[in-house]
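User: Please fill in residues for this 134-position structure.
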């Protein structure tokens, strides 16, 4: 094996001293042949495409979770609405209204009912008033 002889007192010109380092430009580092440059560009485009696809996939997944959450809320609100409809129907019940009128308000049912129709007013000689127009 070959070895250099130790040099004492002299510095050869091919040896780099810390203060005298050669500057290497960026263009020399990336000095690629045209074929290599095209390969690097294609790889860069592919990496960019993959990143865009990953972002779109993440966004689609997020929207999917939001759709499921919204559908769950719609189902819950529909159940609540049905419950409220049943409650409204029970509160509108004529039997309940009559019970409250008799027990709490002291009202009584009349002894007789008179039903009137449009033709009945002419048979009994009842005068009808004209509608008030503003």
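Assistant: Residues filled in for all 134 positions:
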């Amino acid at each position: 094996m070959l070895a250099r002889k130790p040099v004492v007192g002299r510095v050869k010109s091919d040896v780099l001293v810390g203060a005298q380092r050669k500057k290497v430009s960026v263009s020399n580092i990336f000095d690629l042949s045209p074929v290599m440059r095209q390969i690097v560009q294609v790889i860069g485009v592919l990496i960019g495409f993959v990143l865009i696809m990953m972002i779109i996939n993440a966004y689609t997944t997020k929207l999917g979770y939001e759709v499921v959450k919204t559908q769950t809320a719609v189902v819950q609100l529909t159940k609540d609405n049905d419950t409220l409809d049943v409650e409204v129907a029970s509160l509108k019940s004529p039997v309940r209204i009559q019970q409250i009128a008799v027990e709490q308000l002291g009202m009584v049912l009349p002894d007789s009912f008179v039903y009137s129709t449009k033709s009945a007013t002419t048979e009994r000689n009842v005068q009808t008033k004209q509608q008030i127009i503003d």
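For context: The first helix runs from residue 26 to 29.
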